[in-house]
Each structure stands twice: as C-alpha cells, then as structure tokens.
Specification:
alpha/beta, GMP Synthetase, Chain A, domain 3, eight-stranded mixed beta sheet, four-stranded antiparallel beta sheet, 13 helices, 23% strand, globular
C-alpha cells in the first residue's frame, strides 16, 4: 500500500507530531489529573497512595511519577465481587454511569472485570481510530471482524473505532470459519481483524475449500492483536503471503486499553500512543527505569483519560525495548522495537537459559516445510529440564523429514541456545485455536 502523504497520514496531526517537550508536558499534566481523580473517587487508590505516604500534590516532576505505587492484576482481582458489586473499591463513578462490561480472558488466573462509562467507550474508539488510520484504514473500507462477540473486549473497540472513522463493519459473530470465508468473498470485504493464529487458520480453511485468499479474496489489510505474532517477521510473512495483504500489529489489554500500534512505514515495531497513554520501561530484576534503546525491560502502563476504573502505573508484565531511530512516518511518539516480545512471566529459565516462546515461533514459522501449528512442552526428568517441540510436516515434504529436523534443531540451538526433542505429527492433528493460542506449556513442578 502506498504511504499516505502529509497530514492525511495522521488521525490527529497535532498530537501525533507534537514536539517531544510539549508531548511530555501534556502527559505529565494528564498524569497528575488522573492520579487526583483516582485519589478523590476510589477508596482503593486513596488507601494505596496514603499507605505509600503519597498525596496527589506531591507529583510535580517526571521523577515524581515513579513515587506512585504500581498496580498488579492480582490486586485488581482481590477487590472484585465486593461493593459496589461486582467491581469493588477501584470504581470511580456511580454504578449507574457504567455502560459497558468486559472482562479479561482469565488465561493467567481469575478474570478481571472492567467497567467503562460511555465517555470511556468513546475514548476506546478514539484510541482505535489512531491505530486504524495509521495502518491505512479509511471510510472506503469494508471490514470483516471474525470474532464471536461476547464478554471479552477483543475487537469490540475495533468495531466502534472503525464505525467512528466511517468504515463499514461486518460482524462475523457466531458464523463458523467456513461461513466467514464465504461472507468475506460474497461482500468483497477489504480488511480483516483477528489474532495471528486465526488469520493463519482461516487461510488454511479457505485453501481446503478451494479458495486462495490471496487470489480469490479482496483483503488488502489485516489488523492483528492478542498475540505477538504480527510483530514476529516469520509469522507476519506467512500471513501476508497467505492473504496477499499487508499485516499490521497493535497492542492492548482490557485493563489498560489499546496503547500501541504499527504504522504503514512498518519500521519493525509499534508506536506508543503517547497522546492517550504513559508508558514506562523498567528493568525486570531491579525495577530501575530504562530510557535508552536496546535494553529489554518490563512495561508499566497508565491510561491517561479513563475514568470509571483508572489504570495507573499498571505492571503489565509485557517485555519490550525502545527503538533507537525515529520512525520514518514522522510521528514523534516513541516506538518499541520488535513490538512486545512476550511476558515477563512467560520468559522462563530452561536448562539455565532464559527462553522467550516468541523466539521458538520465529524459528518454526520460518520453515515453509512446516504447518502454522506447533506446541512446546517443558518437563523435568529427574533433575534435568526436558523440552519437546511438536510440529506438523506439510504432506508434500514427507520425504524430507530428516533434513528438516536437522535444520530445525540447528536453528533452534542458534536462536535459543537450547536443544529440543522434535516430534513430527500428521498435518491437521495439532490443536487449532480461534483466539489466543496456548502453545507453550511448562509442566515442571512448581516450588
């Protein structure tokens, strides 16, 4: 897709190109305001700040931001299902002002409930408008969303953001995968929103129906979320080749909002939407701030304008690093090199080596001889860690299994410094997922 020139490139040209000093001044002003709001209206936040010896007026400089205690998901779970039911003491507005309910997927524990006012929901749509406009979505697009609309926020906000921009939205809802593909073909949809896992799964299903997505469908843009795959080059390439479309990443969470996005320049990472969010990077071990590029750390996120249940200095557990060069798109928003590479609690030691599951995905998806599906299982045999990788060999590659295995083992050792037991499974036998895939399983005893 050709890059959009001039102001036509930006949803909000003023904020997206604001000089850094003015942008940081705006963020600090908004941060002070949201802390004061939470202190005044949430028993949880008032108690949290008072226990830390902090008053909102104490925040005067950027250095003071770090005095504000961080919030973790576990803290949010603990106060739920209490008055005002079911949100508990983090709620900052009367219950009658809550117009939207969503909850987290609960993949890392009990789900967190998320209330939003109508103003908050408008804010969600605005955040998504930044994302979609930066990726070339316009009011001429017909967007198909193959998402089973329910209690998870997923693409709900993308739906409303697209409507706000003037796009035509086709909700895939309860249709099965085959029906969704036929509807995309019937309506000549131009864009798609889905997880990387489901994007690849849909392409596989379409081919089994005799439909080549790249040739027979008119999808030109795919907006991904929910998994790091769209920022992993090998996975992005697989999706783009399968659909003949540009694939873009975005990063968000139910508790914080849609806070980062890839632009059409595709520099190899995602912009932080610094007009609406404050994003800090800190050392995983020490908690000290990381401001320089090239060092991975843990992201601490603040939604600067969300009022019903403010998310202030949220310990996201997401791991990332700042990029060094400004993005060619001209935005002054900082960007994260390689996107979010995983979660701090997913990065685990195996045989004494730190392992990120995304590194395994990058290797597996770079092999055209293998299908899109794989699984990783870590166990313990005696005192030793054991790691097994299950993959599917494409049917036409059956005669090359030994050579594929040898190359796969070499690449995994090179990229992850680990040796794996490789298990080949028949094509189509590993689990398929429609939302977030659960490919990495650590079955070692917990101590």
């Amino acid at each position: 897709m050709a890059q959009v020139e001039g102001a036509e490139r930006y949803w909000n040209p003023v904020l997206e190109t604001l000089p850094r000093d003015k942008l940081m001044a705006l963020q600090l002003k908004k941060f002070k305001k949201i802390v004061q709001w939470a202190y005044n209206n949430s028993k949880f936040h008032r108690r949290l700040y008072q226990d830390a010896g902090l008053e909102p007026g104490d925040i005067k400089t950027w250095e003071d931001v770090r005095k504000v205690p961080k919030v973790e998901k576990g803290m949010m779970r603990e106060i739920q299902r209490k008055d005002p039911f079911p949100y508990g003491e983090m709620l900052c507005v009367p219950l009658e002002r809550v117009t939207e309910f969503h909850q987290t997927s609960g993949t890392t524990g009990q789900a967190v409930y998320q209330p939003d006012t109508w103003q908050d929901w408008e804010w969600w749509a605005e955040a998504w408008s930044y994302i979609m406009y930066a990726q070339g979505f316009r009011d001429t697009d017909r967007i198909f969303i193959p998402f089973g609309y329910n209690i998870f926020v997923a693409y709900w906000a993308g739906h409303y953001g697209g409507e706000k921009m003037g796009c035509e939205i086709v909700p895939g809802g309860v249709l099965d995968t085959e029906a969704r593909i036929l509807k995309i073909q019937e309506l000549n949809a131009t864009a798609l929103m889905a997880t990387p896992t489901y994007v690849l799964g849909m392409a596989d299903k379409a081919r089994s129906m005799g439909i080549d997505p790249a040739r027979d469908l008119n999808i030109s843009k795919i907006l991904c979320a929910g998994e790091p795959g769209a920022s992993i080059p090998a996975t992005k390439n697989r999706m783009q080749e399968a659909w003949g479309a540009k694939v873009y990443d975005h990063v968000g969470a139910t508790e914080i909002g849609a806070w980062a996005y890839e632009c059409t320049a595709q520099p190899g990472g995602v912009h932080v939407n610094e007009a609406l969010f404050l994003v800090e990077l800190e050392d995983i071990e020490t908690g000290k701030p990381i401001t320089e590029p090239g060092r991975r750390g843990k992201l601490v996120l603040t939604a600067l304008d969300r009022e019903a249940q403010p998310c202030i200095r949220f310990d996201s557990k997401d791991v990332a690093e700042w990029a060094e060069e400004p993005c060619p798109c001209g935005r002054t928003f900082r960007w994260i090199k390689g996107g979010v590479v995983g979660r701090a609690d997913d990065i685990t030691k195996v045989k004494g080596v730190l392992l990120a599951p995304s590194a395994i995905e990058e290797v597996v998806r770079s092999f055209s001889e293998l299908s899109d599906e794989f699984e990783v299982e870590v166990t313990k045999k005696g005192d030793l860690d054991d790691i097994t990788l299950r993959v599917e060999l494409m049917p036409e590659e059956a005669g090359h299994r030994e050579s594929v295995e040898a190359r796969l083992v070499d690449q995994l050792r090179l990229k992850t410094n680990l040796r794996y037991n490789i298990e080949f499974h028949d094509h189509g036998t590993l689990p398929r997922y429609t939302l977030k895939a659960k490919r990495f399983k650590d079955l070692r005893p917990k101590h």
